[in-house]
Specification:
The complex is a heterodimer.
Chain A lengths: L4 E3 L2 E4 L5 E6 L6 E7 L6 E7 L2 E4 L8 E4 L6 E5 L8 E8 L10 E2 L3 E5 L1
Chain B lengths: L2 E4 L4 E4 L4 E3 L1 E4 L5 E7 L5 E7 L5 E4 L2 E4 L9 E3 L8 E9 L2 E2 L5 E6 L1
Parallel strand pairs in B: 2-12
Antiparallel strand pairs in B: 1-4, 3-9, 5-6, 5-10, 7-8, 8-9, 10-11, 10-12
Classes of the chains: A mainly beta, B mainly beta.
């Protein structure tokens, strides 16, 4: 597709359930980011991939959060044993170059996760 | 550490009014500076950017100048339109991370 695609758009999970959020970046984009956006706040960095390598995971809030990008294209963010504080919009973004070049990042529409 | 302080909203303006949204940042190293916009029901979109001191980014009538001495990147538009109603985010990037402000909600009324 033309842009970054995320699925599902909405996810309701019961507390303690595991969830998997998918991101399809723009074809050929080297860099991929995950961000978490709480209601009324700006996006907060979670993790960064350059191709299949996860170069920065400093923003992952706990070991319940795990991200992968095994073939350097599609990425999955997994949250285990979801808690209510995990409720947020999860944004994926990709950019053409590695971030040393600091090029524009293109964002998907996000997955809104609600933990009940 | 790295952080962004952005003018709090919400901001309500009449059509054709002048807009300023203030943004100041602290960053290690030499960041590139971005403004992103989020229209209702849509994802974040790049509005403009500047990559070095004194650069001016501009797009759709919006402008922002990279002021290294004051670590600021204020967003301005001379005459806003109803279609500019959105949430605006200031976002420096250093290393591998964009650092987003909390966002400023703008509503333009006819």
């Amino acid at each position: 597709g033309a842009g970054v695609s995320q699925s599902p758009r909405y996810k309701v999970a019961k507390r303690g359930q595991d969830v998997a959020l998918r991101c399809d970046p723009i074809s050929g984009h080297v860099s991929l980011f995950w961000y978490q956006q709480a209601l009324g706040q700006g996006p907060e960095f979670l993790t960064y991939f350059q191709n299949e390598a996860q170069l920065d995971k400093s923003g992952l809030p706990s070991d319940r959060f795990f991200a992968e990008r095994p073939e350097g294209s599609v990425s999955t963010l997994k949250i285990q044993r979801t808690q209510q504080e995990d409720s947020a919009v999860y944004l994926c973004a990709s950019s053409l170059a590695n971030q040393g070049a600091r090029t524009e990042a293109f964002f998907g529409q996000g997955t809104r996760l609600t933990v009940v | 550490g790295n952080s962004v302080t952005q003018m709090e909203g919400p901001v309500t303006l009449s059509e054709e009014a002048f807009l300023t949204i203030n943004c100041t940042y602290t960053a290690t190293g030499y960041p590139s500076l971005f403004w992103y916009v989020q229209y209702p029901g849509e994802g974040l979109q790049l509005l403009l950017k500047a990559t070095k001191a004194d650069d001016k980014g501009s797009n759709k009538g919006f402008e922002a100048t990279y002021r290294k001495e004051t670590t600021s990147f204020h967003l301005e538009k001379g005459s806003v339109q109803v279609s500019d109603s959105a949430v605006y985010f200031c976002a420096p990037i250093t290393g591998n991370q964009f650092y987003f402000g909390t966002g400023t909600s703008l509503t333009v009324i006819p």
